[in-house]
Amino acid sequence: MTSPIVIRVKKKRIIELLASGKRTDGRKPTDYRDIKIESGVIERAEGSARVLLGKTEVIVGVKISTGTPFPDVPDTGVLTVNAELVPLASPDFEPGPPGEDAVELARVVDRGIRESKAIDLKNLCVEPGKLVFVVFVDVYVLNHDGNLIDASAIAALAALINTKMFKYEVVDGEIVKKPGYTPLPMVNYPIAVTFAKIGDKILMDTDLDEEQVMDARLTMTLDKDGNVCAIQKGGGSGYFTKEEILDAIKTALEKTEELRKIVVKS
């Protein structure tokens, strides 16, 4: 855990740089670090992707099994997202049950996929009320150098695009596998972008030093049509003004379109 004195010194230096229009690594406020996406990295998963966002590294695996639907949506498949902050990724991560940060990360990624209706879950119903496909999205953070939310959301989307389902037919209420595979029924491509407020400056894609000193964080997930489908405030007791949020939405529209092209092409 970084000491309060070190954080105060970091914050003073970062604010001084921002006042002159600079960041510690030379980027502009809305610049992202280099993004590298590698799909199909886990042989035994139905879909997978590894993302490097600067030095932040995340890998996502997708598994598909069968199960029963929720009673309130008997004709709809099930989506579940889990996140694990692997101890080797940061000295601040500890082994054991998921902590608050892991739970928040999983929920933000889940909400973006779910609220954008990225997957046609009704297409994953085998027999209403009895049998549906369940899509498990597992997020593993391998190296933490800031902005885990955006890196994880990008990796999750890339892994879902990469996912293949086996072909099947239903015989006497049972699933019988057939030769070949078919893509997961994807109908939307949500992208999450995170804004951090440090003093009176708003940044995107914070590295770890910037993240440690931010006053507040705001994540917006936009679908392929530019609709805001999820928002999450976190990262401290600071706040965003109405004007700052409206400006962030405008920036998010441009940035998500740019990032989506990178993910879809991968």
Structure, explained:
The protein has 266 residues and is an alpha+beta fold. It has one domain (4-265): Ribosomal Protein S5, domain 2. Helix content is 29%, strand content 35%. The protein has five helices and twelve strands. The strands form three sheets. Strands 1, 2, 3, 4, 5 and 6 form a six-stranded mixed beta sheet that branches. A four-stranded antiparallel beta sheet has the order 10-9-11-12, sandwiched between helices. Helix 2 (100-115) crosses helix 3 (148-162). The longest helix is centred in the C-terminal third of the chain and has 24 residues, at 242-265.
In a nutshell, what does this entry contain?
This protein has 266 residues and is an alpha+beta fold. It has helices spanning 4-19, 100-115, 148-162, 208-213, 242-265, and strands at 35-39, 47-53, 56-67, 78-85, 125-127, 131-143, 164-171, 174-183, 191-198, 201-204, 216-222, 228-234.
Overall helicity: 25-40%
CATH superfamily: GHMP Kinase, N-terminal domain
Structural class: alpha+beta
Distance between the termini: 36 Å
The total tally of domains equals 1
Q: How would you state the average pLDDT, rounded?
A: 93
Give helix and strand order, one letter per element, not per position.
HEEEEHEEHEEEEHEEH
Unreliable residue runs: none
